[in-house]
Amino acid sequence: MLWLLLTYYSSCVIQIDNVCYMAFSRTLLWYDSEEGTWRSLMRLKELPKLPKHPSHVRLVDYGGKIAVLWEKKVRASGSKKKMIWCAEIALERRNAHKIYGKIEWCGIVLTVPKSCSLLELIAVKI
Predict the structure, then answer these.
(1) Does the predicted model carry a pTM greater than 0.85?
(2) Closest Cα partner for 31 from 99, 89, 92, 94?
(3) For residues 67, 8, 83 and 19, what is the CA-based torsion angle, rounded to 10 degrees?
(4) Average of per-residue pLDDT across 61-86
(5) pLDDT band for position 10 (50/70/90)?
(6) Residue 14, exposed/middle/buried by CB under 10 A (0-12, 13-18, 19+)?
(7) Which residue has the higher pLDDT, 12 or 126?
(8) What stretches of the chain adopt beta strand conformation (E)?
(9) Separation of alpha carbons 44 and 66, rounded Å
(10) In the beta sheet, which residues pair with residue 89?
(11) What distance in Å separates the CA atoms of residue 16 and residue 31, rounded to the nearest whole number?
(12) 56 near 18, Cβ under 8 Å?
């Protein structure tokens, strides 16, 4: 079952320090391998709601942090644009069954034509 879920959501699943993280149903989850269950990343109430569909969200390992990028349509009548949002989230494991997220930055990084989509991401250090 886990493999099927990860295959469907492969574009929004990453692994950092032997922990899988996934964007699912407008939130971020991590996989507790000891319990065999997905758990919510704690303390992310300020994170804007992510899109429901996984094709509009991408995760990338950003130096041990999670960089989340997602698409949001511009809410103006007749608009043919969409906004690309980004959030940088630091991770802190406090015990075996709790991982906390801290939003270090969040905002719009780009406005693009509505026909554009997020495909693949790669974090590059320059």
Answers:
(1) no
(2) 99
(3) -10
(4) 89
(5) low
(6) buried
(7) 12
(8) 13-16, 19-24, 27-32, 37-40, 57-62, 65-73, 81-95, 98-113
(9) 12
(10) 66, 103
(11) 11
(12) no
